[in-house]
Amino acid sequence: MNIKDVEIIVVDLKYPMNIGNVARIMSCSGYKKLTLVRPCSTWNNMDAIKFSLFGKEILDSAKIVDDLDAVKGKDTVLFGFSRRIGKKRSSPVMLSELWNFSSKFDLNKKIKLVFGGESSGLTTEDLNICDHIVTIDQDVIANSLSLPTAVAIALYEFKRSYVLSGQRREKPSKKLDIGQAGMLHDNVKELLKNIEFIDNRDSKRVMAKITDIINKLSTNEVRLLHSILKRVK
Prior knowledge:
The chain has 233 residues and is of the alpha/beta class.
């Protein structure tokens, strides 16, 4: 998974300046996909553009849908953000645990983070559509946050955990092509001999270590090194 593939969804937006702020926050942290559910008719007016600053491209590409069901599918996982914990919200995912929780899903799943509008947040009906509810520690923040503030905290924490994790949800590279690896081994050996880094005496020892390194590479990485060696020659 790449952060730019994570979709940010805002439901029942009322004030254009707030969606401008959300677009700016997304742009600062690398999120690219924005969807608005039932926004006010003036959601993209001059206030939105002014407050979006360098997030205008995100505003321009935002999708508009009539209800939250429109963004839900078999390959999606919707995380709805709410501070209210009730009967149907008894097992929320803590924001600090969201990345680790989301990383358990299949790599092909599309992660969508859903935020409610300025009045009362996500309704019970919208939360029921979401697959999981996300909240924050109420000992740290006791009351409801404004929409831009909630989005800023959530996106920062998710991106921070993503970076610290080493991007564990990235799809693995293609398996190493044995033929390509063999060619790279031979080309490296030839280069090292030409620059007199190795001779026949220590060739076996050094090349054994080079082989270990090559075997850890992906096919794309091997091809890149082939291109570099070709340019060196």
